[in-house]
Design a protein that fits this description.
Helices cover about 25% and strands about 35% of the residues. The chain has 5 helices and 14 strands. The radius of gyration is 18 Å and the shape is globular. It starts with a helix and ends with a strand.
């Protein structure tokens, strides 16, 4: 990709962001194709993270920080705090726990002692098909609450997301995971949810939180708390299953 080639030719200090109006060649997790119609906020952002830093030692956390930044971008606007936008571990943005509105994809390359991170994030701002979009949630909120919140634009939300992300990274670098987890838990959809491990007949576990490395922690009856790695498991939220791949 163009941004993948560009990122090594720019001065260190300069962040780079590409904003796509429409994307047809996108890549998703596990080689899925990521198509993005008009009305979606879609960007790829390049950041550098020193290996010997809080975040450099916990790179899986980046996708959580980006998901949180997208939700915060909307919910930190005065008046928009109760728009039901949430994070789903490890890398999705949801309307309540009902419907996916966006996602995050992170690629990292370690060069000497610096991680070069390409962050792709996309979320549906203004397109009611095929799911629901952020502006639909605002219309719904206005109807239910009698408010007159204005619709938001993709450009504004991309800019806000990047600004919030920079702040979250600074906090993480200074304080580690505990600096950001309270905010993350405030917006995530999994608190106290029950899941089955393996298949629908599998052992019951409760989601506890995420560990210091960004992996999901589950508490299985009689077994204590264990961490579940996202790359080795798929998390099927609709059926509340954690399935080894």
């Amino acid at each position: 990709s163009l941004i993948g080639r560009l990122m090594f030719e720019l001065p260190e200090e300069m962040g780079l962001i590409a904003v796509a109006v429409r994307q047809t060649q996108g890549k998703g997790r596990g080689g899925n194709v990521w198509l993005s119609p008009v009305g979606c906020a879609l960007s790829t952002l390049h950041i550098s993270i020193p290996l010997h830093s809080n975040l450099g030692q916990r790179i899986p956390f980046i996708q959580h920080l980006v998901s949180l930044a997208v939700v915060e971008a909307v919910r930190s606007i005065p008046g928009y705090e109760d728009i039901e936008l949430r994070v789903k571990w490890p890398n999705d943005i949801y309307y309540s726990d009902l419907m996916k509105l966006g996602g995050v994809l992170v690629n990292s390359t370690l060069i000497e002692t610096t991680f070069h991170i390409l962050i792709g994030f996309g979320f549906n701002v203004n397109n009611s098909n095929p799911t629901i979009c952020i502006n639909d949630l605002i219309v719904k909120f206005n109807k239910e609450e009698g408010t007159e919140l204005k619709p938001l634009s993709a450009d504004c939300l991309i800019a806000r997301t990047v600004t919030v992300l920079e702040r979250l990274i600074d906090i993480f670098q200074e304080k580690g995971p505990n600096g950001v987890l309270p905010q993350y838990y405030k917006y995530w959809i999994h608190s106290g949810k029950q899941v089955h491990l393996g298949d629908e007949e599998g052992p019951v576990a409760w989601i506890v939180g995420i560990d210091d490395y960004g992996y999901l922690q589950v508490h299985e009856e009689g077994k204590g708390v264990e961490s579940v790695h996202p790359d080795g498991n798929s998390f099927d939220m609709l059926r509340n299953l954690i399935v080894p791949k």
